[in-house]
Amino acid sequence: MKKIILTFSLIALTVLTATAQDVTGKWKTIDDETGEAKSVVEIYKQNGKIYGKVVEIFDASKRDLTCTECTGSDKNKPVMGLVIIKGLEKDGDEYNDGTITDPNNGKVYKCYIELDGANTLNVRGYIGFSLLGRTQTWQRVK
Q1: What is the residue extent of each domain of the chain?
Q2: Which of 9, 45, 80, 107 is least enclosed by beta carbons within 10 angstroms?
Q3: Residue 53, CB-side half-sphere exposure with 13 Å CA sphere
Q4: What is the CATH number of domain 23-140?
Q5: What does residue 132 show for φ and ψ, rounded to 5 degrees?
Q6: Which is nearest to 41 in space by CA: 121, 109, 124?
């Protein structure tokens, strides 16, 4: 009986840990320069890859902005609803080989994201090498 309870407990713990370690969901973006919350990005899976779109903007004066500096199909699209994270693939504990767009200037950077616990996400945008970039820490929206 003890073995059954122990086995069940280990299975339950494994399932809970796997669920908690998922990057999908809503994340509050934090400006790495000011420390202020800027928006909420919903991260989701599509065709086996990870994407993220802006679903909320906290500053009311910026809610109707469009990405005038973006290129391609994102040019002049509203920032609200804009898919800013595209095509990340799971690689061990991180997701990489995709891009992130900065809707403030339209620039597209290589990107990787990595969980730091269940409720903290490190998002790094970079050019060329991952050493040449910056990291933001996003908080899970509960």
Answers
A1: 23-140
A2: 9
A3: 11
A4: 2.40.128.520
A5: -100, 80
A6: 121
